């Protein structure tokens, strides 16, 4: 993925929102903290890679976008309290700085990220009483992994 679009370009793409900061970026997705009318949400920009200009490339692009569409749709269908909910911005293709993304939003949850929680748990293995998480919290994490998330 190209580097995350600068805040100014993201702000221009979402003029009704106040883009507060870059939260994080991964292989295909960049996340920004945004606010509109007092509502905080996470704006997600999912990078759409360029595909070969051929029939195979067109098929690969359709499959890629279809998979992403299904993932977002499934997130919208899940009623569990353990997953974030979709936000106000419906998924749509957007060009920012000459790069295509699928943009949508999710509710913004603050606090410890799952990545930080897992990293802390892994780094605390073998160290006695050094984890900031209680045993009940560790049990909750294991239970969450066994819970069926979508109903």
List keywords for this structure.
single chain; alpha+beta; 2 domains; Phosphorylase Kinase, domain 1; 151 residues; five-stranded antiparallel β-sheet; 26% strand; 4 helices; 5 strands
Please provide a written account of the structure:
- The chain has 151 residues and is an alpha+beta fold.
- It folds into 2 domains: 7-107, Phosphorylase Kinase, domain 1; 114-146, no CATH class.
- It is 34% helix and 26% strand.
- The chain is built from 4 helices and 5 strands.
- The chain has helices at residues 7-13, 55-77, 114-123, 135-146; strands at 18-25, 29-36, 39-47, 92-96, 99-107.
- The longest helix has 23 residues, at 55-77.
Order of helices and strands: HEEEHEEHH
What overall form do the CA principal axes indicate?
Answer: globular
Determine Rg (CA atoms, Å): 18 Å
Q: Measure the end-to-end span.
A: 33 Å
Number of strands: 5
**Highest CATH level, the class of the largest domain:** Alpha Beta
Counting helices, strands and paired strands, the structural category is: alpha+beta
CATH superfamily of the largest domain: Phosphorylase Kinase, domain 1
Main pleated-sheet profile: 5 strands, antiparallel
Physical arrangement of strands within the biggest beta sheet: 1-2-3-5-4
The poorly predicted ranges are: 133-151
Mean pLDDT: 83
* CATH topology tier name of the largest domain: Phosphorylase Kinase, domain 1
Strand content: 25-35%
CATH architecture field of the largest domain: 2-Layer Sandwich
Helical coverage, percent range: 25-40%
Count of the domains: 2
């Amino acid at each position: 993925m190209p580097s995350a679009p600068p805040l100014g370009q993201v702000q221009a793409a979402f003029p009704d929102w106040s883009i507060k900061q870059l939260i994080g970026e991964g292989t295909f997705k960049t996340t920004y903290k945004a606010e509109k009318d007092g509502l905080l949400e996470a704006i997600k920009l999912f990078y759409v890679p360029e595909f070969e200009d051929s029939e195979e490339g067109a098929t690969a692009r359709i499959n890629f976008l279809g998979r992403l569409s299904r993932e977002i749709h499934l997130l919208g269908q899940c009623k569990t309290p353990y997953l974030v909910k979709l936000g106000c911005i419906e998924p749509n293709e957007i060009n920012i700085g000459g790069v295509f993304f699928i943009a949508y939003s999710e509710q913004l949850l603050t606090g410890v990220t799952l990545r930080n929680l897992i990293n802390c748990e892994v780094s605390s293995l073998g160290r006695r009483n050094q984890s900031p998480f209680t045993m009940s919290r560790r049990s909750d994490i294991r239970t969450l992994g066994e819970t069926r998330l979508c109903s």
